[in-house]
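Quiz preparation item.
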């Protein structure tokens, strides 16, 4: 059996009961080294295997191979279906006959970070990664324009890195073609972990913020406002 487990933000109390049970039942836990480091303190008696960034194919094949003879958990931060390993595990499943897969959902950063900021995601939302390792930048920019024009609340994953230091600025420049500079925005870094930091700001201010890969960014729609110091997007229930 292979469990593909979303463990959430990395905080123990943000992990679902189903995720914890899958990890407890597993003989082996496999993951990206940053993720295994988060889980080792919670499951000190488990055996772990880990590898580095951009070794996703090797990681999934290793998990499927071991899962032919034992119970394995392949761990992902947040939810395994959202920029995680769930689809890749199914893509290679046919090469490992007799192995079963179960996807264990987790709380993705969009929702756990949204709770820190307030309630920014109560209406239609688009989640977009700014990483162009697997998706051409031209397609990412098209998605940004469409989401902005459609007045979606937008959540940005992977907003910046050492190699992509200006990507959030470039994204904001696209969004400013469709959104007011005063659009309510926010971001959260290290959601649910030590060093958690959040800020609510305007779109024009967001453009000049310094963020990293551990930051999740939120751009409000035309209805998003600040209520009691929090970022809130009404659904319209009060006027129904």
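Solution:
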């Amino acid at each position: 059996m292979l469990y593909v487990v979303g463990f959430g933000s990395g905080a123990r109390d943000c992990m679902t009961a189903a995720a914890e049970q899958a990890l407890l039942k597993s003989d082996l836990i496999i993951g990206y080294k940053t993720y295994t480091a988060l889980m080792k303190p919670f499951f000190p008696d488990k055996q772990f295997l880990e590898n580095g960034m951009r070794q996703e194919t090797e990681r999934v094949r290793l998990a499927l191979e071991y899962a032919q003879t034992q119970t394995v958990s392949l761990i992902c931060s947040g939810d395994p279906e959202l920029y995680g390993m769930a689809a890749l595990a199914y893509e290679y499943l046919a090469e490992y006959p007799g192995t079963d897969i179960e996807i264990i959902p987790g709380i993705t950063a969009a929702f756990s970070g949204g709770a820190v900021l307030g309630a920014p995601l109560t209406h239609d939302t688009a989640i977009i990664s700014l990483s162009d390792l697997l998706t051409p930048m031209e397609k990412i920019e098209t998605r940004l324009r469409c989401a902005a024009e459609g007045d979606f609340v937008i959540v940005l994953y992977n907003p910046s890195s050492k190699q992509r230091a200006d990507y959030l600025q470039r994204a904001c420049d696209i969004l400013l073609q469709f959104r007011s500079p005063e659009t309510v925005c926010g971001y959260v870094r290290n959601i649910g972990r030590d060093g958690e930091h959040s800020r609510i700001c305007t779109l024009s201010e967001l453009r000049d913020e310094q963020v990293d890969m551990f930051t999740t960014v939120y751009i409000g729609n035309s209805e998003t406002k600040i209520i009691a110091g929090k970022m809130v997007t009404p659904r319209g229930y009060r006027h129904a």
